[in-house]
## 1
Amino acid sequence: MLQYPFIRTALAGTLAIGLVCAFLGVYVVTRRIVFVGATLAQISSAGIALGVWTGWSPNALSLAFTFLAVLFFAHPSFGRRWPQDTVLGVLFTVSGAAAVLLVAHTARGNEEVLHLLQGNLLAIDSTTAWTSAIVFGAILLVHLLLYKEFLYLSFDPRMAATQGYRAGGWNLLFYALLGLAIALAIKAVGVLLMFAFLVIPAALGLVLVRRMGGVFAVAMAAAAVAVVVGIWLSYRFDFPSGPMIVAVMGGLLALGGTARLAVR
Amino acid sequence: MSEGREPLVRFEGVALGYRGETVIEDLDFTLCAGDFLGLVGPNGAGKSTVVKAMLGLLKPMRGRIVYERELHEELEFGYIPQRHTLDEIFPLTVEEIVAMARYRSAGLLRGPDREDREAVEHALEAVDIVRLRHRGYGELSGGQRQRTLIARAMATGANCLVLDEPTDGMDLSSQEAILRLVSRLHEEEGLTVVFVSHLLNEVANFVDRLAMIEDGRFAWGTLEEILTDERLSDLYGMPVEVGRIGDAVVVVPESRL
């Protein structure tokens, strides 16, 4: 299948997105903000839908929507007056509905809805693949350079604050990087695959490994395997590639969970 | 004020609260170098709020908190949070958690140096958990987790430990072990200690100062000043008797005698 340039491009772009989203997903799962990730993804897709409807740049609107949400989620008052899950539930459903409604009467309404949900990996062009590699590489680099700070502020923000860390600022940086990754990933791979990258590989890492470094390594390896195997299966048996990659990740998690139970 | 001891932090007519609602007011007390202060009150009375203010994480609504200037630079708080606030989903070892204490001093983009490693080693030894260094935090008992957090606070180079309900939810022997450990660190390492608890009987036999919060009322002083029938009856709003079993002080409501 690698003789086709569009498959090589799809593979490279999806690998860049998958590896970095799997890395970020370890924080998403351990900080127990999975629903925040899902809601950011949905808000981002609403931005894309608005772009499709109005003819303005879907990327710019997606980023703008996501960063507004990031500012809201990273604010210290988030979740104080109203329970976090209630606020997230409202935003998730309303932005999801908005995304569908905004594209419903466009020229390719149903197709756009499907595209938002499951993406279209095979349509990733080389510019998108290169942009993804550079931006997602930069996000990963920032995380690796600031690894100990992000880990400390995720694990025990109050203790970190007593030592002089500005927890609010670090939180904002964390969410901004997450939001950037989500907004860019959604356009290329859709809500379903992006969200799966954030959750399933990290869950597998936590099931299999009991060291932080190992969890990151397993999560990224699982994402990479799922991308390669998923794209090959979708090519070989003519299935949509995004859902196939999610199915492979689900299979890996089931295998990992079973192996873990067997070892116990 | 504690006689002969240098003041570290003074609360002067402080009122504390959140979003304009007062949780506790009229706080007047001084924490001095070398104090072993017990901060006692029922759940929800505002003990953790006082701790937050002391650590500089919450600004007073009224009054002021004075950090004595000549000693302020030397004052390093080592905060020990309630252990259930830390999520064991993070697959971190005891050593990794204790080493977090040195992240700030190591600075951005730098790993731990020899001084950092020595501080971690000393802290692990001081609280007797060297053998647990490679164990996962989630695999530890409540007492072992508390020791890990105490070691982390010590590894910051702190000279004042602030323990927020460290014995909450522990059995009697674990409570006793933690109190004896903190008492030993207070004496041998010369640490100032603020020990928060909702159990007066638990801390009254270890601390040398008491700050008590009860139903909006606040009392502070030495054990001799606070642990009297009159003072405690006034504070609790019901008749209370202070007795002794051997060397131990026991506070009991009169209705149960």
## 2
Amino acid sequence: MKKNKLWKVMSLMLVLSLVLVGCGGGGGEKKAAEGDKPAAGGDTIKIGFLGAKTGGHAAFGIPTLEGMKMAAADVNNAGGILGKKIEIIEEDHGSKNSEGANVTQKMITRDNVVAIVGDPTTAITKIAAPIAQDKKVVLLSAGAVGTGVVEIGDYIFRDTLLDAVAAPAVTQYVKEKLGWQKVAVVTSMNNDYSVGLSKLFKAALVENGIEIIVEQSIQDGDQNFSAQVTTIKEKNPDGIIFTGYYTEGGLFMKEVRKQGIKAFMVGGDGLLGDVLMKMGGEAVEGSMVYCGFAADENKAGEKTKKFIEAYKAGNNGALPDMFAAQGYDAVMLLADAIKAANSDAPETFRSELAKTKDWEGVSGTITFQENREPIKSPVYLLEVKEGKFAVKDIVDIK
Amino acid sequence: MLGQQLLNGLTLGATYALIALGYTMVYGIIQLINFAHGEIYMVGAFVGVLMVTVFKQGLVVSLVAAMLTCMIIGVSIERIAYRPLRGSTRLSPLISAIGVSIFLQTLMTKVQGPQPVGFPHVIEDAIYKFGSLEITKVQILILVVASLLMAGLTFIVKYVKIGKAMRAASEDYDAASLMGINVNRVISFTFAIGSSLAAAGGVLVGIYFNSVSPLMGVSAGLKAFCAAVLGGIGSIPGAMLGGIFLGVAETLGIAGGFDLYKDAIAFTLLIVVLLFRPTGLLGRPIQRKV
């Protein structure tokens, strides 16, 4: 009897608290809707960071934010833009898709940001983009490479190296510099990224007159590749185009070397991770991976070198990665567009941003095409050397 | 190249067979499908990695250590999770087995992280040629160790006293116990043998595929269970045959370009075989006692 009463009281309290929370949330939204975008009047220009500081995607988010902060500091130290300082609004969605939408909503309606940089992943970018488009706030992703991102609307941009740009350049490189005539293409069939990348590579191979002598399919999570490798061995290719992720890439190469094939592997940034060496060991020596940015002080240009040095100074000697460089460039792109438009109203500087052509950033040269898809040059081709990724060559896009 | 692919299939099949034996022996005696068996195989693989990396042991010591560890784990699982349920319905120990399986998976994910771990290099990548057929040193190792273990098991079951007791218990559990056989001891022994074979399979697969992960036992366990049923559950030669049959079929399927369907191959085969031989390839016909 007594216990029963206690339960009743507790459930009543639970219901009450739910109601209260619900009201609180609703009220907040209403207030924000009333104050929709008085942005131009503020004394700082607010740029939001959409990304993860915790959870599985923290490795992408933290360096992006670091790069953004550096860019904001550089702009502000040079006197700011339009007489205002840039302020970075930091949020953390904890690598959760659902939180991605909340954070975007909050940054636009409560903080009145004029632009959002992020998310580094395609998935959350696609969740956030319709919200930004709807509220007419510029969203510039410094990481999304998947399809269907900028198609969401004319306020949506990205400053990443797209596989559609990189794959043809890398294909041309392996033909001209490495003399590959006939290759094997390996695709992970349950991985959208891999299936898409293989399609791009196959088109580029045909265009460059390289023969695809054997195609094999694997799946993410596979461990046994003996049958596929035996089939490849029979055809004796000059090289292997592997479009999957690092775990399978490392294991695949292990089997390739075990069966005595000497050919090297080339793949996209899905292979870019230390797990490749952890799984592949000696077998992945000489494997090649392309990506949008790699810090190499000897091969970098003036601007990039300065960025690398500044980043190292602020991060205990750690080298900046692709996300840091693209985060830096994202803020700089926005700053330049705002300067050119002489206004920080998203409706106005959006069109200046879309006109970006041969813009020099620290991660490369960026041009936005008619459809806002970036063409980025150069492509960094990395090679595994003594268990580490080292820049093999920097390939310019024509 | 068919010969080469057959060899790949045989190697894979030998590892399936090692796991399938554990399923079939346990089922033969207490009619329990020990769903935690795949996890024993996974734990065995991790013990192997631990021995090589932390204790700097060679292949043989690591293999034996993994087998001994899993022997103890297997027997303890039986004591803790199955024996108290011996008198209850057949469903209870089955559910308990699923619980143990999930427990071991999550425990290992917690301890080890969800990422696969590379198996350290314990034998060099040498290739031997026989005509057009090439066999790697790892493949030889797997085939030899698996054959030795299976021969040893056959010897024990056929000629050693405890093996005879196992056969007796599997034929008629109650009669065996009436004849003075300590059935509990026999069951413990069965779990010990089955678990150590699975651990050996885990270490060999770790070396072969160079990768060990907390969830590796799920699909391997399912395939091996499939192999055991295919060969006729309860039959030891059946489990060996079923494992090899499945390994070869799967490899030829992948080589034929049906990679996406490789798991489907195993189960389609199972359905087809069971349609024509409901007790599996080498299974005994079911005799209902009235």
